[in-house]
Amino acid sequence: MRRALEVFALLLLCGSSAEAHIASNAFLSIDAAGQQLQGSIELAIRDAELAVGVDADHDGKITWGELRASSARLQLYLAEHLTLATHDRSCALRFRSLQVNDRIDGAYAWLSFTAHCAVPVRQLAIRYTVLDGVDPSHRALLNLRAGTIVQSGVLGGRADAREFDLAAPARWRTFLEYLHAGIGHIWSGIDHLLFLLSLLLPAVLLRRQDQWVPVATARPALLSTLKVVTAFTLAHSVTLSLAALNVVRLPSRLTESVIAASIIIAALNNVFPIVTESRARIAFAFGLLHGFGFASVLADMGLPHGARLLSLCAFNLGIEIGQLAVVLAVMPVVFLLRNDARYQRALMPWGSMSIAALASVWLVQRALLSGS
Asked: What pTM was estimated for this model as a whole?
């Protein structure tokens, strides 16, 4: 129990510098036309630091001057770790000047490029090894366009090249790409997981006479968990679909700020209970906002032409699989601890307060500091 409290404390201490989405993702966009390729790659500045060391004075702050001074080294590094080829013949990359693009999770180094291939591109092989050996979790979200055909992929984590048929994208591979992307996003989306965890911590307890008491059997805990997870799933599935299909969109800054606020409310409700038997309502209400958060990553990947519904369903299914895996890992442990008084008096209240404090840092970062 003490170790668990130490983990929560460490989480809080790291909160001042941690972002809610800590996955290391780059964004690679390529347009193919004849023998010409045009595109861009966006690499998080924190990843650029890992790749070539752009923080010249080692003060923990990367300035525009430092980033610009390391532009040539960064271009050389990317040219070595990003290879485009057709018919076993490489297409020479030529990078343009470095720019900076701000995303919700921080600043990105943005480099556009052109590539000339010896023959018209019908099949494109992409080898992406950025941060291999440095950050095994790093991936590039690919958006590949050839005329009206758009397809997506997740690159990285393997040394061999990925082959893409520009005229006939493979639907089964598209499904798997979006499925893996959904699983990866929910596992790396700490804010979504902490919101869900805040609602699940009291699932093994009942509120009686102004205090939490453990459930006697597994059945009420299972029912409570099922209600919360189902409500959260239904809600974010609706808004994810609406946002992905461009029916309804909200500004990312507003969405991410409200998501942080939802974590605070859910966590504090465990310490100062207002809603005890209807936590599923909280899950549904704020799950609608979390769906817009999921949609932001899907928007970066894009929905490929001709497979919009398939890709959307696969991404959402991936989120549900990743979410279910977390629930199955957490709930048996929580159920076994429910009769321990330290769970009711220490782990749940102090854990919830730590979650609320961390979410408060995110709320300030997103609402007040983002874009300043």
From this structure: 0.70
